[in-house]
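[job 4471] stage=fold_predict status=RUNNING
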Amino acid sequence: MTSQKMTAASPDQRVNAADYPCLAVLSLAPAHGYDVWRYFRDNLGNVWSPGRSQIYALLAQLERDGLVYHERVDQANLPSRKVFYLTEKGHKVLDDWMSRPVDHVRDCRLELPGKLHFAAQHSEEKASRLIQDQVALFIEKRQKMADKRARCQTEIERQVMDYRISVMDVTLTWLDGVTST
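[job 4471] inference complete, writing structure tokens
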């Protein structure tokens, strides 16, 4: 996972790209850190695979940012554990993330599958809308690439644009297959 910061729903709030999936797990049900980690392992192991210590650090940061809060729950013969819940602000940030298509093809490897997974957990309509918006954005970007390619003046520029267009075409084909399932 990346440590790159991404703009969230409100201009004053910045969220780490890895934070969104943590918020999404908590939107399904309150959970403690180990449960969040186990959700990733069991449901998204090939997409998101954070370490347990990373989950605890992410949850602590989300709490400092006011996106989650915790309650201590006692356990028989074990130390109490923190169970995390989304705040209203956390719900808003998550909803914005789940409804916004990714801007770059490179984000289709990690971020988009996570968004699609969690959007589908909330509703098939939300996931379908995300795919439609993603396709529309990438069709627009592909047209801009083709226009730019037409203005290329050197062979290497044309080859680079051909490569970028072919990657976009493969991505659009993949998205078409995602809509069919």
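[job 4471] summary: The radius of gyration is 19 Å.
[job 4471] exit 0
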